[in-house]
Every structure is written in C-alpha cells, then in structure tokens.
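Pipeline run #58 for the internal structure catalog. This entry was flagged by the ingest filter as a single-chain record with no existing model, so it goes straight to prediction. Upstream metadata was stripped on purpose; only the residue string is passed forward. Reviewer on rotation: M.T. Logging verbosity set to normal.
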Amino acid sequence: MTVSRTICVGFLALIAIGTFLLLLPFSTSSGDWNSPLVALFTATSAVCVTGLIVVDTGSYFSPVGQAIVLLLIQVGGLGYMTATTFLLLLLGRRLGLRDRLAIQQSMDKSDLSGARSLIVSIISMTLVFEISGALLLLPAFAADFEPGLGLWLAVFHSISAFNNAGFSLFADSLVGYVRSPLVNGVITVLVILGGTGYRVIMEAFVWLRDRAQGSRERGVFSLQFKIVTSTTLMLLMVGTVALFLTEFDNPDTLGALDLGDRLLAAWFQSVVTRTAGFNSIDIGAMKSVSLFITIALMFIGASPASTGGGIKTTTARILFVCTKAVLQGKEEVTCYQREIPPSRVLKAIGVVVGSVFTVIMVTTLISITDANFSFIDILFEAVSAFATVGLSTGITADLSAMAKLFIIVTMYVGRVGVLLTMAALLGDPSPSSIHYPEEDLLVG
C-alpha cells in the first residue's frame, strides 16, 4: 500500500460507506430502500464534491439523508487525509512518517514540516468560513421559510458552497434567488474562498494581520499566491464578460432580467463554473457558444490544495508561460521574475494530457451508449464530472445506467487526480541512475 494507493482506497471507502447509508430506508423521504445506483451516484458526487444528481436532493432524501449527503460533502471537501489526520489528532495519536508523506502528497506540499499545524489551520479556517456563510445566508432563507428550515438551508448551502460541491436543496438550484444580491454575493465569496486554496488564504491572512499590527515590513508574496490570485481574477472577469455578452439577448437565461440582474447572474455563473455547480439560470437553455465557454472554464477549474477540481489555475498558467517562453525563444520558463522548475512544467503537461485523454474517453463512451443526446451536452457532462463541477444541461437523470457508471468513475478520477490515480494503479516509480543519450527531433 503506497501513499497514493492509501489515498485512493480511502476515497473509495468513504464512497462505500456513504452508499450504504444512503441505501437505508431512513435516508429517503418515502421510507423505502434506495436504489443502489442512485445511492452510489449520490455518494460519489458528494464525496467528490461534484454536485451532479440523478434525483432531487431536497425532496428525494429525508432530513437524515440530507445530513448524510452534507457530511460526505464536508469530508470529501476537506480530503481523505485531512479528515482522517484530524481524527487521529483528536484521538491523541502522533503523526508518523507515513502520515506526513500522505499529507504532503495529498496537499501537494514541498516538504514534510508543519503537518499538524497545517491540518488544524485548515479545519479552523473551514469552520470559520462555513459558520460565517450560514449566518449571512440565514436572513434570506428565514424570510421565505420557517426558522428551523431556514437555518438548515443556510447551513447546507454554506457548506456546499465553500466545499465547491454545488448540492442544493432546491429543485432548480438557486434560480429562485437570481435577483438576490445577498444570496449571490455570499455564495460566490464562499465558492471563491473554497476554490482558492488554504495556502493562499493563510498567506493573505498573515499579510493582513501584519498590517493590522502596524508592521512596516514589506510582505513578499509567494509565486503560488501571485499566480493563483491573478489567474483567478482574470478567469472571473473573462467569464463574466463572455457569458454576459453571449447570453444578453437570450430570453430563457439573461434576457428576461434587468441590466443589473443580468450582470449579477453573469458574475454568478462565471464564479460557479470554478467547480461549484450551483446555477441561477437554466443551463440547458444556454446557447452553444456559452456552453463551450463554460466547458473551458470548468476544465481549468479551481486552484491547488482547494476544494475544487479541474486541471487547476496554476497548471493553466504554467502552460501559458511555457508557450510564451517558446515563442520568445527562451529556454527557461519564468513568471513574476521567478523560474519555474522543469519538474513542475513536466507535471503540468502530464496533468493536461491525462485530463484531456480522460474527457475524450468518457465523452466517446457516453456517445456510444447514449447516442440520443447531442455531442455538446455529453461533452459538457463529461467535463463537469471530471472537473467536479456539477453543472448539467439536464441530461444526468436521463442517462443510461452504463453512462451513469462512466460518470461515477469520472468524478472519482477527477477528485483524486489523474496523476495520483495512475500512480496508484502502476505503483510509485523506482529511482534510476541510468541517463540516456540526448537526441534532437522535430516538433510542431
């Protein structure tokens, strides 16, 4: 059992436990035994913080079933190693070398130091943001529902948003709150924070703390912070403008709203494509060009060490600066006056190639089993599952049983990671001292 296999098996165990619990009669609102495929699909979607559903979560599942889904979202969002390590710390167990290695690999850390404090910081930060989000959402939901239900809706959607899960207890997601600045604002802030990653948030917190304490030392942000924040901001702006322009005159989406509400809805959809899965407009009614833009944004996804999926913002930025370096005739890949190690460039290329291959394979298989759906809808579903987004044009529940199994596997691979999955299947590479002779070849 290598570290990569431990992480993969851990996620499988969480999915298995969630499937069993959702199978039991107390999990459904009807009190009957759940369908095994529905239970497996929902548990996988929750653990992988995706948000794709084959049944309406709010009406199909009982309050107990909804609580199970929420628990799976929380554990899946934190990550298997984070959740289990925190449990070990609560039990008073010291972290061994194997535990630290697993945390290092799951968090994509460069060293083994500070594993204990890291886990505590992540849990504390998660609780602070989720409780704050629930309190801010409470007035909006309490105004439309009784206090108890309003509180539950606020808690559920706050946890779902911060973990970039996209599960909603409303049949139409958040379409009913498309004109609510409070709901749209809180949800988008939670999604952005959850998709930014703990390292960037902690770095920003330390900088703000130093400024508040009157420190005059000039804070130097890491390359990770600069790339994540700038790339995230650029994607949010481009997504908002692109969706606003393409859907401006569509009466089934933005066309029926006022100008301010159109901007708000375009902003909301641009944010949630960052692997969140909520929607405030009808995704199935969007134009093909808007769907394609959304697919591109979903594929890039969130940032490393976050609750989101996709190839990650840093990967996309590394490929961009790598292409820029080639066009400029440079041999070093640099960004913000820092050279990016060749190992990171190779890893970024591997992530993109593996991700593209996975999406192509899943799209092809579903196109064979469910040829009645359009290609753009199938591609949208495949990318949404792989990037653990949860957005859908409305075909998820109508997919065949085989296609749903393909989506389940895709969600799992997307959450665990392509490279980690391959490492678990093939085993860790053995070190080699052999160096082969270099030979040039034509490229492009």
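catalog note: The chain has a mean pLDDT of 89.
catalog note: The two ends are 41 Å apart (CA to CA).
status: ready for reviewer M.T.
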